[in-house]
Amino acid sequence: MTESLAGQTVEAARRALTARFKSNGIDSAELDARMLVGAVLGLDLTGMIAAARRLLTSDESIRLEDFARRRLAGEPVARILGLKEFWGLSLQLSAATLVPRPDTETVVELALEMLRAEPDPARRLRVVDIGTGSGAILLALLSELPDAEGIGTDISVAALQTASSNAAHLGFAPRATFVACNYAAALSGPFDLVVSNPPYIRSAEIAGLATEVRNHDPLQALDGGADGLDAYRVLIAQAARLLAQRGALVVEVGHGQSGDIERLMTAAGLKLQRPPKADLAGIRRAVAGRKMPP
Ligand code: GLN
After folding, report:
1. Which residue among 97, 222, 252, 280 is best mutated to probe the pocket of ligand 1, counting the most ligand atoms within 8 A of its Cβ?
2. Which residues span the domain enclosing 283?
3. Given pLDDT bands bounded at 50, 70 and 90, which one contains residue 119?
């Protein structure tokens, strides 16, 4: 029987949640508890410290109990709050979008490196994000490239609504367009940069994923087919066609997939100019190729 949160101080409730999460094997127990308490109180970390000794109201304790129950049932904090920070941008989520991962910031970094290695084109930079989901990669790039315009595609109209709402509330709507299609099938180029975090988990491995992912991320955004590479076969060929000369393709890849993706890029005529970029865990996470004049 866990102690009720009713009548506790903010600090005691935060500690109680941390302890419950820890004893349920949640690695991010401390952070999760802090984020949920902060969300219920509408306070950031500093505000929470200032409020540490005040008592939770009964409404607050009821909401917090509900959040805690959902977290203990395997729902990630980002889903409970409907928000996730990516590249310093606060993004709304929906059931149709992946929760953006910090790993995916590696794609943004490598994409910016690929662009900066080339002189600016005379025209406005054109970027496309294939399978944009919440719009995370596209909007991060637009935030770094004030002169760029971008298109996000997704096969899910619900995901595009979320992405387009994110573009609007972050002020990027004038430079962002969203298109419902399979990969980039409806687009015509040329684009200076094509990016994607496609589904890349092998179908047989989906059942073994953490509850947070398996039960809460959309399957369509995870399942990469029997060998995990189905999406790349389609989108690398499309990107090779859509890229401007000297344009770059940068994709996220799963653990151990970078060699396969480099081979697919080479087979599509793209040149590998940089080694894959590792994420913070040291996993080769982003792979880049460039379309070069013959
Ligand atoms: N990074 C996600 C995970 O490993 C997978 C996302 C994807 O398939 N693109 O949970």
Report:
1. 222
2. 84-291
3. confident
How confident is residue 51, by pLDDT bands cut at 50, 70 and 90? very high
* Residue 198 sits in the same domain as residue 100: yes
> Which residues have CB under 6 Å of ligand 1?
98, 101, 197-201, 213, 222, 252
Q: Is 57 helix (H, G, I), strand (E, B) or coil?
A: coil
Nearest atom in ligand 1 to the alpha carbon of residue 213 is 10
Q: Are residues 102 and 156 in the same domain?
A: yes
CA-nearest of 101, 148, 110, 151 to 131 is: 151
Alpha carbon distances (Å) from 209 to 63, 81, 188, 223, 230: 28, 22, 36, 11, 19
Cα–ligand 1 centroid distance for 96 (angstroms):
14
Is pLDDT of 1 > 50? no
Shared domain check, 217 and 98: yes
